[in-house]
Design goal:
Layout: E1 2-10, E2 19-26, E3 32-38, H1 43-56, E4 62-65, H2 88-95, E5 99-102, H3 110-129, H4 135-154, H5 173-176, E6 178-184, E7 190-193, E8 196-199, E9 213-219, E10 224-228, E11 231-236, H6 245-259
Parallel strand pairs: 1-4, 4-5
Antiparallel strand pairs: 1-2, 2-3, 6-9, 7-8, 9-10, 10-11
Length: about 260
């Protein structure tokens, strides 16, 4: 099963503002599984889009994209991408065994380009008629109404019945769809990251983690966490302050509510 992901920059609100519409569509049926307006296509906005599709639909076989830097690293302009040097998006999909396929010509992206021409011709007028002028309002309109209407009008029937999506058995998508960075624990049981000092509390199973390599996870909700193998050894807000157990639960519930 092949999905396309792409973004289209346009004046979606019929004014001077430019935004990117990120869309994920089915290669076989042209069904839209995700469409949201963002200030700018980026690693974070792409990860958020992919996570929603995986959570709502399941795992798919492969993803077709352009060669933007959040998808691929290209050693020299015009040369093939480096398939061994993974971006954050590439690493996340690799963890889920989803193959990435790069586009090497505008013609190869014809499916998504044709879809975006339809979006550009229709969505601005729909937003104007609905009186929507904000990203939050427009994205709610897309989720609750317009994507289903778009699919009813433009998607085609699949050649066979059933779905090619597979259930996702991964238990911690927070650690998959995030930005990961390696770090080393200092002698005072802290990790330095982005001008922050993340203090690791004493763990019951180990006195100190000094000298150990850990992973710093930048989560899509703005929080940070530290992982040592399967253990989470710290969770912090965006300013590096430790989060209480109640705050952690609240963050997770808020993320699930936004996704719903």
């Amino acid at each position: 099963m092949l999905l396309h992901i792409d973004a289209s920059q346009h004046q979606w609100f019929c004014d001077e503002r430019w935004h990117d519409l990120i869309a994920i569509l089915d290669d076989a049926t042209s069904s839209i599984y995700y469409a949201q307006l963002v200030e700018e296509e980026s690693t974070r906005t792409v990860l958020r889009a992919l996570r929603q599709v995986v959570e709502e639909q399941g795992l798919f076989c492969s993803l077709y994209s352009d060669r933007a830097s959040h998808f691929w690293l290209t050693p020299k302009t015009g040369e093939p991408v480096d398939r061994q040097a993974l971006t954050q998006v590439g690493r996340a999909l690799s963890e889920l065994n989803i193959q990435m396929i790069p586009a090497y010509s505008p013609q190869a992206r014809g499916r998504s380009e044709r879809s975006f021409r339809t979006w550009q011709g229709r969505l601005p007028q729909e937003l104007r008629l609905a009186g929507l002028t904000t990203l939050a309002g427009a994205n709610r309109f897309l989720r609750e109404r317009y994507i289903s209407e778009f699919n009813e009008r433009f998607a085609v029937a699949a050649a066979e019945e059933g779905t090619a999506f597979m259930p996702c058995a991964h238990t911690d998508l927070d650690r998959v769809f995030c930005l990961q960075h390696e770090g080393v624990v200092a002698r005072d049981n802290t990790v330095s990251f982005a001008r922050l000092t993340l203090q690791i509390e004493r763990q019951r199973w180990r006195g100190t983690l000094a000298g150990c390599r850990v992973l710093v996870y930048e989560h899509l909700d703005g929080t940070l966490s530290l992982g040592y193998g399967a253990h989470e050894v710290g969770r912090y807000n965006s300013e590096g302050a430790p989060l209480s157990a109640a705050a952690k639960d609240g963050m997770k519930k808020a993320v699930k509510k936004r996704a719903a």
